[in-house]
Design goal:
Elements lengths: L1 E7 L4 H17 L18 E7 L6 E9 L7 H6 L6 H8 L4 E9 L8 H13 L7 E6 L4 H6 L3 E2 L8 E3 L6 E7 L10 H12 L2 E7 L5 E7 L13
Parallel strand pairs: 1-10, 4-5
Antiparallel strand pairs: 1-2, 2-3, 3-4, 5-8, 6-8, 7-8, 9-10
Length: 238
């Protein structure tokens, strides 16, 4: 059994440390040492929410992702990462701030759950499911090539106006990243039917246990605990 749980970063500093250590290990293993989403400043930001995959005994963090909500103080990681290449990212993000916007970033999974779809599938579904519950009507993402199709299945679309038809070489010259935007987290009008149904099922029951069939043909129970307390849904409407 696995657990996928959400919380505001400032509420659980120890779990954030585990998240950061695991994320950095994964990046180091593929030769990446400097990346905006792997910095540690986010752990003290009230505008950051964390989703972690935990082992059954709750002692190991096996993967995770973060939602950065845009406020008047903290830029999104995607702005910091791409703004120096194409300044059009700034007015685009600003245009979304009125109704609450944010970014999914720092998505990773450990070797123990590699190949199961835990990171690319279940964390993606979980982050999109909870976005409206924290007042975010749109979500940005900077996707590696192997995550673009999953992002598209839940409603993201490539922002062709940014960079080279939406792409940059980031964080290294041999790695391609795609700027993507999900415009309506509440309706998911561009998502595939099956993925939309899964997201709404999670959104309507943020604390649930379900038997899931993984990519490696294993069946495993996943406990979803995605309710975040003390969130005002207009908190990030600017």
């Amino acid at each position: 059994m696995l657990s996928i749980r959400a919380f505001r970063a400032i509420d659980e500093p120890e779990e954030c440390e585990k998240f950061l250590a695991g994320h950095r290990r994964v990046l180091t293993s593929i030769g990446i040492r400097e990346i905006t989403s792997a910095k540690s400043e986010w752990m003290t930001m009230k505008s950051v929410f964390v989703i972690i995959v935990e082992s059954e005994d709750k002692k190991q963090v096996l993967g995770g992702a973060r939602i950065h909500a845009r406020n008047l103080i903290n830029e999104l990681p995607i702005e910091e990462a791409t703004g120096k290449f194409d300044s059009k990212i700034y007015p685009l993000v600003e245009s979304k701030m009125k109704n609450g916007t944010g970014e999914i970033c720092g998505l990773w999974n450990s070797r123990q759950v590699a190949g199961m779809g835990i990171g690319s599938v279940f964390l993606t579904l979980a982050t999109v499911a909870i976005a409206p519950t924290i007042g975010l009507n749109s979500l940005f993402a900077l996707c590696a090539p192997y995550t673009v199709s999953m992002a598209e299945s839940v409603g993201y679309r490539t922002v062709n106006e940014i960079g080279n038809n939406g792409t940059f070489y980031y964080p290294k010259l041999d790695l391609l990243a795609t700027v993507m935007l999900l415009n309506d987290t509440d309706l998911l009008s561009k998502s595939e039917k099956n993925e939309r149904e899964k997201i709404f099922k999670l959104r309507n029951n943020l604390s649930t246990r379900s038997l899931e069939h993984l990519r490696n043909n294993q069946d495993v129970f996943i406990d979803f605990n995605l309710k975040i307390n003390n969130v005002i849904t207009t908190e990030f409407h600017i």
